[in-house]
Design a protein that fits this description.
The protein is mainly alpha-helical. The chain contains 8 helices and 4 strands; from the N terminus they run αβααβααβααβα.
Length: about 180
Amino acid sequence: MLSEFMNNKLTNYFHLRDLDQDGFVAQEDWEGSARNLAEIRGWQPDSEEYADIVAKHVGIWTTFWKPADLDNDGKVALDEYLTLTDTLRKRGSFAQNVILDLFGAIFDIIDRDADGQITFQDYTLYFNAWGLNKDLAQQAFSQLDLSGDGRLSRSSFIQFSSNFFISNDPAVPGSRLFGPYE
Ligand SMILES: [Ca+2]
Ligand SMILES: [Ca+2]
Ligand SMILES: [Ca+2]
């Protein structure tokens, strides 16, 4: 069983990924966010960058979200998502590796110039692509950017992401990876 804290945190995260707000997370939500990000970055639908960013988002859906679709209806309901994450968390090092892969992939999407650092601006644009505003990005980023230099390294981001999924401690920085969940 997930604690109430984990339950709230992951429920909030689930809703952030439900781009079209239909109550389910599906491939369409990930594709929609990819299209939004491409548009924000000024990439044309026939460009290589566009195809690449869509492929990366669909890859995350297929690898990390689709396995949660226990009833095979092509979309992930909240209870399916919570069941999968609870199972993953119990598998210790396996979960750790999944998180490394998943959030490495997410970091690489956010890190537009691929220099291993993301800026507050990068983070804001990523939030925008998910229909989330700059204030939320600010609240999240300020909790993660411990040195306050406006940048976040790949290793810190992955560490915080791991805290987000594994830690039962609300005080760790990663607990607000995507802003407040209360
Ligand atoms: Ca949806
Ligand atoms: Ca389902
Ligand atoms: Ca960068």
